[in-house]
Amino acid sequence: LVADFGAMVNNPHLSDVQFQTDSGEVLYAHKFVLYARCPLLIQYVNNEGFSAVEDGILTQRVLLGDVSTEAACAFLHYLYTADTGLPPGLSSELSSLAHRFGVSELVHLCEQVPVTTDSGGKPWEEKEAENCESRAENFQELLRSVWADEEEEAETLLKSKDHEEDQENVNEAEME
C-alpha cells in the first residue's frame, strides 16, 4: 500500500489539485489524501485555490510560496506514505511546512534529523550562506571588470576620434 501511494506522489493521473512553487514548477496531488492526512492543507487548498486550465483540462491550483519544489515534494511524499526517511538537507524547509500545515509528527521527525555539516564542521546552511556571499562578490567583481573594460574602450574610441579630427584639420590646412 505504501509503495502504491508513493507512486501517486506528484503523479498527474487522477490528480485534482496542483501546487505551484515559487520556481513555477507544478506538483500534482489528490484531495482525498490531503483531506485524510492534513486538514489544514485541504482547508488552504479550498480557501486559496484558483482555477487553471492545463492541456485543456480545468484544475484547481494553489500557490505554495517560500518553499522549494524539492521540499514541497518531500512534504507530499510524507503525507502520502508516512515515510520517516527524510532528506537531511530539506529538514528545515520540511519543518516549516509541517508547522504551517499542522503536521506535528513531521515537525517531531524534522527535529530529530541532525544538522548537516560539511567536512569543516560548519552547518550546511551556514556554508550555503557563505557560498552565496562569495557568488555575490564574484558577480560584483565581474560587473566591475566589464564596466572597466567598457570605460577603457570608450576612452580609446574617443582618443582615436580626436586623432582622426586632428588629421582632418591638418589635411584641410594642407589643401588650402
Automatic annotation (TrEMBL):
A Pfam family per the record: BTB
Main location: nucleus
Highest rank taxon of the organism: Eukaryota
Swiss-Prot/TrEMBL keywords: DNA damage, DNA recombination, DNA repair, Endonuclease, Hydrolase, Isopeptide bond, Metal-binding, Nuclease, Nucleus, Phosphoprotein, Repeat, Ubl conjugation, Zinc, Zinc-finger
Gene Ontology molecular-function annotations: endonuclease activity; zinc ion binding
Coiled-coil blocks: none
Positions with biased composition (Acidic residues): 165-176
Family per record: Belongs to the SLX4 family.
UniProt subunit comment: Forms a heterodimer with SLX1A/GIYD1. Interacts with ERCC4/XPF; catalytic subunit of the ERCC4-ERCC1 endonuclease. Interacts with MUS81; catalytic subunit of the MUS81-EME1 endonuclease. Interacts with MSH2; component of the MSH2-MSH3 mismatch repair complex. Interacts with TERF2-TERF2IP. Interacts with PLK1 and SLX4IP.
Entry protein name: Structure-specific endonuclease subunit SLX4
